[in-house]
Amino acid sequence: MAGNRVTRAAASSPAASSPAALSPLDAYLGELASLLQGPRRRRTRILAELGDGLHQAIGDRVAAGVPRAAAETEAIADFGTPQAVADAFTGELATAYARRTIALYIATGPLVGIWWLLLLQPHPWRAGLVALLVAIPVLPLVAIAILAAATTLATTGRLIRWLPEAGPRRVVAAVLAVAGLVLAADITVIAIYTGSGIPWRPLAMIAVAASLVRIVGSLITVRHAASFVRFRRRRARSGRRTDIG
Predict the structure, then answer these.
(1) Residues 100 and 221 in one domain
(2) 3-class secondary structure per residue, 135-158
(3) Which residue segment(s) compose the domain that 102 sits in?
């Protein structure tokens, strides 16, 4: 696709570090690519679609007799500034990021959870609920995280035909909550095990390593989600100032 060619050229050309050597179209798409934040596949698709749209708009103007340079300038002006276009896709990219992150939590959660269950309560089927909660007090947090994750995936995917769709703000709030719950759960189970005096076994080392990876991932998730929240607040304040003006 034309958009893919333009995107790759803007991102990988040796001249990309010298804006003066780029055409206005390449410079525009290159700046836009640097402003979009989110999953790479979704960003690539957005840039490809925008590139195709710009090429179509430029082609239409050239066919109408407008010089190529002027056609590029007019088409870019009609699309808006790179910052404005990137802002318009912030919600979509934030939702895509949240869905991918929650899917990773769901994919890794059961396995890590089983490891900790076997370490802290080796015979869970023989223990009652109270004994399980005493051994693994984070179980309610895990249940809440699972519910929040499942609800978010359901209200941002194909089930929105039957369920109300969750907006970007709600989705980001959900991924923040899930990341916080997972962070608290992993820190707690590591602390419980290290303070229990139970001999270290290979499974314990694997479980601790997995939880440490999830802790780092959760901290990164919180940082990314918080940056979206800050962006929404800045845009809201900017909108209020514009209304007042």
Answers:
(1) yes
(2) HCCCHHHHHHHHHHHHHHHHCCCH
(3) 90-244
Residue 158: the pLDDT is 84
Which two tokens mark 59?
A: 């082609």
Distance CA 71, CA 75 (A): 6
Sign of CA dihedral 61, 66, 68, 72: negative
CATH of the domain at 208: 1.20.140
Q: Which of 35, 89, 45 is nearest to 53 (CA)?
A: 45
User: Would residue 38 be called left, alpha or beta, if left means φ above 0 and alpha means ψ between -120 and 50 degrees?
Assistant: left
Together in a domain, 165 and 107? yes
Coil, strand, or helix at residue 42? helix
Per-residue CA distances from 196 to 129, 135, 190, 191 (Å): 20, 10, 10, 8
Q: Residue 4: is it exposed, middle or buried by C-beta count within 10 angstroms (0-12/13-18/19+)?
A: middle
H or E element that contains 201: none
Q: What is the pLDDT of residues 134-178, one digit of tens each?
A: 788 888 988 999 999 999 999 998 888 888 888 888 999 999 999
